[in-house]
Amino acid sequence: MPLKLVIPGGSGQVGAVLARAFRSRGDEVVVLTRAARPAPWRTIAWDGRALGPWAAEIDGADVVINLAGRSVNCRYSDANLKQMTDSRIDSTRIIGRAIAQAARPPRLWLQASTATIYAHRFDAPNDEATGIIGGREPDAPAKWRASIDIATAWERALDEADTPRTRKVAMRSAMTMSPDKGGIFDTLLGLVRKGLGGTSGSGRQFVSWVHETDFIRAIEFLIQREDLCGPINIAFPNPVPNAQFMRDLRRAWVQTERARGRSGGLARIGLPATSWMLEIGAVFLRTETELILKSRRVVPKRLLEAGFQFRFPDWPAAARDLCARVTSCNSPPPRPRNSS
């Protein structure tokens, strides 16, 4: 039976990945956005702070997937940090109110969180049971604490929402890799194609990610598994250091280009970037080096223990798939119905 899914903040890359996938399998998708614009699914305007006509869409929906929040790809100025915090907390609270007042509340609320909530570390992976919440690492810049404060406040707002008839899951998601323009993979591949896809900083920091196919399948799995609630890590089960991650991406692009009769160009070079070079570049790009230099060694223990099987548990294979799809006009992957 088709589902009705409401996706607040679904106008970005991750929202488009989910909306496209669920619509393609016959489900009804409604995206709540601050700037409604034409899309293959219904879009409804909201401000992320106050109840409005949009709340009627939640009453009777099967699933709410809240992705709302200002992008973290910016400088951590006081003004930007306030916007990042307020947009997450306000939207979570108002969705909780809409669910609480619904005559037929959704049975599941999937709330975006982030793998960044865990500590910057190299010694051991962070799972949901034994992972260390970050903010006190002696070798991490003080301003990284802001990201942890935002993430913990975000999850606290979810916990405080009084929705006894709705199961709640905090999705501690790693970077979702898809070939969509403007996404993280597009950005990384752009560096590789310019010859700049080498090691970042020491190259020791772990990179956590998830292929869009497995991200979609994980969402389907969480919808089906009514016994799962609370924090859930959605990430590739075997994170690798940055140096290896970028090397595998360069090789995947060169292999893809050679299959098309091309040399691979500058991707074969992979110039490294030291930490101070990245700090200077981040100023000009209006972003922060935390997105590159923090070691996100996150593993999806609860998903694995529940029986979820990753289609792409290996970064080289995932990178080759994504590179091939970039060269074939961003065609979406086949939609598997079975999520186990």
How would you sum up this structure in a few lines?
Helices cover 38% and strands 14% of the residues. The protein has 340 residues and is of the alpha/beta class. The strands form three sheets. A seven-stranded parallel β-sheet has the order 3-2-1-4-5-6-10, sandwiched between helices. A two-stranded parallel ribbon has the order 7-9.
Structure description:
The chain has 340 residues and is of the alpha/beta class. The chain has a single domain, classed as Rossmann fold (3-Layer(aba) Sandwich). It is built from eleven helices and eleven strands. It has helices at 13-24, 55-58, 78-101, 145-160, 184-193, 212-224, 242-259, 275-285, 290-293, 301-305, 315-326, and strands spanning 4-8, 28-33, 42-45, 63-66, 108-112, 167-173, 175-177, 206-207, 209-211, 230-234, 240-241. The protein has a seven-stranded parallel sheet, with helices on both faces. It has a two-stranded parallel ribbon with strand order 7-9. It has a two-stranded antiparallel sheet with strand order 8-11. The longest helix is centred in the N-terminal third of the chain and has 24 residues, at 78-101. The chain is globular and about 60 Å long. 45% of the residues are buried.
